[in-house]
User: Fold this.
Amino acid sequence: MKEIITDLEEIKRLGEQNRDKNFKFRSFLKTRDGNRLDEIVHELNEKISKQIDCTRCGNCCNYLTPPLTNKEIDSLSKYLKLTHKEFEDNYIELDEENCKCLSKIPCVFLKDKKCSIYEIRPKACSEYPFLHKKNFSTRLFGVIDNYSTCPIVFNVYERLKLFYNFR
Ligand code: SF4
Ligand code: SF4
Assistant:
């Protein structure tokens, strides 16, 4: 079994080094059966996620600007003792699809590599990196981006190459 890599500098370096190959692999994956691909990714994700401790990483919080629902904004406003409007004025910006997203990078709630609002973190954060979801083949641009920052994505994508014997 291939060794799990969690060193963020190494993953970043390999992300740059393997970028072309990752796009070629994306084209290959696009020709596979989507349902079968989802099954394989879900299995790999389950195995890899168990071996990586997100509480010792937190790297995604250096890059994510998660979208928030109005309900989530209400919870966070209450937590910070702000009004909904004050929260939006200070922490939210609209993305290109007009979704309300946390605006600061790294995330303002990241403290010592940990989420300081973990219990009430947005759904988009708790679901990241989305490898348990269906339709993996439709999200491959995002996967390649996340490959160089998220150890779970990196190791799942590498094992997927091994599974398909992709060189
Ligand atoms: S809210 Fe928490 S989990 Fe989400 S990006 Fe910010 S620090 Fe990370
Ligand atoms: S989801 Fe990925 S980048 Fe985020 S904390 Fe876990 S391993 Fe690190």
